[in-house]
Design brief:
heterodimer, A: 86 residues, alpha+beta, Glutaredoxin, 21% strand, B: 169 residues, seven-stranded mixed β-sheet, two-stranded antiparallel ribbon, 11 strands, Thioredoxin-like_sf (chain B), Alkyl hydroperoxide reductase/ thiol specific antioxidant/ Mal allergen (chain B), antioxidant activity (chain B), oxidoreductase activity (chain B)
Chain lengths: 86, 169
């Protein structure tokens, strides 16, 4: 099985995370979901990969980009993979 | 030992030694996060696959204390399966089961496929797993299998020690 290049760190039912998922789906991008705990203090894995404990966060191995904040992520995804993107 | 008969469980056509452990995909929980994983992708060497009753039942607590006492996760990959949610698995792994990852199978479909389903009296609508131990090689061939035939019944740690030693030596 080929591994998706994008990993999404997400929290169940987090609207900002769902916003990113919608964009990933619109762009037909494969991704793997890693669910973390609601408690901030329980999110060391997110801190380790992105430098902050906030979700959503994505890791894109295709481009080497790691990013937090849904607005930034959506802009990045559209700019990289959308119409007119690289 | 008790001076009355414990409950015997009916015969079951379960996954047995020599079988290939059926593949499945379920959320796999570690001490930091969970994600969908296929057993076939996770097994890449000797693996101890442990089915157990829902998290919180004393059987699971004893099981993971035994895993830690015997240090099996130092020698093989240790994977659990129960009907509990990923949130419950994370709480369990915070206290015990060092290095263990646990699949979440709330619908018990994997448990059914392995021939381990157990309808618990007085918990209508819940299909439980019998305690069961499968030691797999890297190809998911079952090298050692044990399935509870009484309720309750606990796996024999010494037998698992021997099976692990046979496989990894």
């Amino acid at each position: 099985m080929s591994e998706p290049q994008i990993t999404l760190y997400r929290l169940q039912a987090c609207p900002f995370c769902e916003r990113v998922v919608r964009t990933l789906d619109e762009l037909d991008l494969e991704y793997r979901s890693r669910y973390v705990e609601p408690m901030h203090s329980e999110r060391n894995v997110v801190k380790r990969v992105s430098g902050a404990r906030s979700v959503p966060a994505i890791v894109d191995r295709e481009t080497g980009v790691t990013m937090s904040e849904s607005a930034n992520i959506v802009e990045y995804l559209n700019g990289t993979y959308g119409e007119g993107g690289a | 030992m008790v001076d009355f008969d414990v409950v015997s469980l009916p015969e079951t056509d379960h996954v047995a030694e020599g079988d290939t452990a059926p593949d499945f995909t379920r959320p796999l929980v570690n001490d930091e996060y969970w994600e969908d994983r296929a057993l076939a992708d996770v097994v890449d060497g000797p693996t101890l696959l442990l089915f157990h009753p829902m998290d919180g039942a004393f059987q699971g607590t004893y099981l993971y204390n035994t895993v830690d006492d015997h240090g099996w996760s130092d020698d093989v990959d240790v994977l659990g399966v129960s009907i509990s949610t990923p949130y419950a698995h994370k709480r369990l792994l915070a206290d015990r089961g060092d290095g263990v990852r646990i699949f979440s199978d709330p619908g018990a479909d994997v448990i059914e496929e392995y021939g381990l389903a157990h309808d618990i009296d007085g918990m209508t609508g819940i299909t439980e797993s019998r305690p069961a131990v499968f030691l797999l090689d890297a190809d998911r061939t079952v090298e050692h299998a044990w399935v509870a035939s009484e309720h309750p019944e606990f796996p024999d740690g010494e037998a698992i020690d021997d099976a692990v030693a046979d496989l990894v030596d």
